[in-house]
Amino acid sequence: MTRPPRRPSGGPRQGRRSRHPATRRPVLDGARLTAYDVLDGVSSRDAYANLLLPQLLRERQLDERDAGFATQLAYGTLRAQGTLDAVLTGLVSRPLAELDPRVLDLLRLGAYQLLDLRVPSHAAVDTTVDLTRAIVGTGASGLVNAVLRKVAAGGDREQWLATLGASGDERLGLATDHPLWILQAWREALGVDAELEAALLADDAAPEVHLVARRIARGALVEQSGGEPGPWSPFAVRLHGGDPGRLPAVRSGAAAVQDEGSQVAALLLQRAPLEGPDAAWLDMCAGPGGKAGLLAAVRPEGVRLTAADRAPHRAELVRRSLAGEDDVEVLAADGTAPPWRPGSFDRVLLDAPCTGLGALRRRPEVRWRRTPDDVPGLVALQTALLESALASLRAGGVVAYVTCSPHAAETVAVVDAAAARDDVEVLPVAPLFPEVPGLARGDHGQLWPHRHGTDAMFMALLRRTR
Questions:
Q1: Of 223, 240, 363, 415, which has the maximum CB count within 10 A?
Q2: How far is the C-alpha of 167 from the C-alpha of 65, rounded, in Å?
């Protein structure tokens, strides 16, 4: 597989003084310094890049070109970490884990520019050395200079893949910036190898911003935003640029930023066939309230919506999201030990805590932060929550089980375990969304970035029969 070099969306802007805390720093490249500070926040404080980067861009007031370049550098370096480390491992005399973490982040930042961007090698090396001298010290800058010159001499990514001698799945993982265990999970979830490379590459593409029209007509939101209607959700608008926070509908709460896949997952609960009364809905793990907000907008008149989240601060986010809605209750409650009586609800949405592997486009560091060891604990929690969700239903009620992960252990296996009960029936998902091609995953539903332009949301529908 040949991946063309990415053209940087911006370039160096000399003369901007850093606002990064330090006793003294020389004048540095603002875009590269910002990208480094994102890497440092992720590695030293377990920060999320998609939250930290916008904060830094606002604080530093980088112009559009520099902001774009900083975003490309930060996200690209985080995504490519495994490949970058494979290259750097052979060029440093000691294990990478023994390096000063700041030096390792700087080496990755420089190596990413050399392997994947059309940045002249002298610019990539010299600016990274300048950053190292300012951030770590003169001694470390010599190491960075020597290592990055070796990276530059080895050529671009394709040449380095040949040098590393990887083949098969290992080479595909290095070429698409995925750990081997995620690559194998994607193959199992897809069921065919023909789409595997496309699915992996889609994880590396910058996602569009999607809006949900909650208390505004979608046509009006399209006109206001300059976007276009989403193809799968009747409430979705896809943007091609700009800051959605500046839109009047978003500022007022009439619309919100929400991936179209999340909208489809919420609509599954509304579209599910129901036996008996339809008066009480539950969003069991609701924070930060995006799906609850859409459910509040689409529920029939007279339906009471309860939204719960275990964390009080997340429950508060849900409360804010639902401000102004009638007949809504927001609780800070643990779904595995709920305060409501069994059989209280007609419909339950369980958007279960998961690895988040379905949103790798938006959270580039997650692919390297998560490990296979994270999965069993989450599966145990998902299983307990689904059992509780089923207990919360009256006979004839339905649960929509949703995860932002296609991993089989978090999806099909959890549903199969629940479906083994003699009072649970699995309902097919795809017939409820005839407008969405390629959705079926057996009786369940699976969205994919490469097929649908959404996060990789998994959906299952279960009915309690008695």
A1: 415
A2: 38
| DSSP type of residue 81 | H
- Strand segments (E) across 54-191: none
Q: Give residue 243's pLDDT.
A: 86
Does any domain span residue 303?
Answer: yes
Spans of the chain below 50 pLDDT = 10-26
The answer to the question of residue 323 being in a domain is yes
Structural domains of the chain, count: 4
DSSP-derived letter for residue 196 is: H
For the chain, the 3-state helix, strand and coil shares in percent, each to the nearest 5, are 50, 15, 35
Active site residue 285: no
Annotated catalytic residue within 404, 429, 439, 460: 404
Are residues 216 and 86 both part of a single domain?
no
Q: How far apart are CA 131 and CA 154, in angstroms?
A: 23
pTM for the model = 0.90
Task: Report yes or no: 66 and 13 within 8 Å, Cβ to Cβ.
Answer: yes
Identify whether 35 is part of a domain: yes
Measured in degrees and rounded to the nearest 5, phi and psi for residue 6 equal -80, 135
